[in-house]
Amino acid sequence: MAFESYPILEWGSDYLLNEVSLDTIYKISKRELSLRPFITRTPAIHSMAISIYLYPLMETDKYIFMRSTEIKYDMEREEGGAEINLLYDKQDKKTYTQNLYNKDITDKIDIEVSKRFENTVIKSYSAELLVDLYKEGKLTGALSDIASQLNEEDNPVLLLARFPQAN
User: Which of 117, 166, 126 is nearest to 146 (CA)?
Assistant: First the structure.
């Protein structure tokens, strides 16, 4: 997936300044217009053999969701560098790889945190995909009930997953 980067991102009641070539992502207070470090990368991006960009995606009371993207392209395979979903636990101060899945789909289809609005992750499922998964017996719960009433030409189904908002 090609991920879009914006150097200034609305972040709750503040902004983030994330110029991908910098080692520090800054938080800008809307009220005071002050700048303070939010995330500092280690190792420094300029010391890496292959640069890896870091994109903060969402913050909850306990976590900061991020994505890292390796900046390289394999011409023979026609594919870009690895993208990894990261989760920073603010309590234990550690970073983990993470993926979010819908419990109503037995096949693990990642819910991409890159599509979000404030504290809500948005995932769109095509009606065609849901009908196919339903016919294959790979849906359970509410999503199975919804898919049982769809045909392949229907509109997509949106999943909204809300997280507690950070202070």
Answer: 126
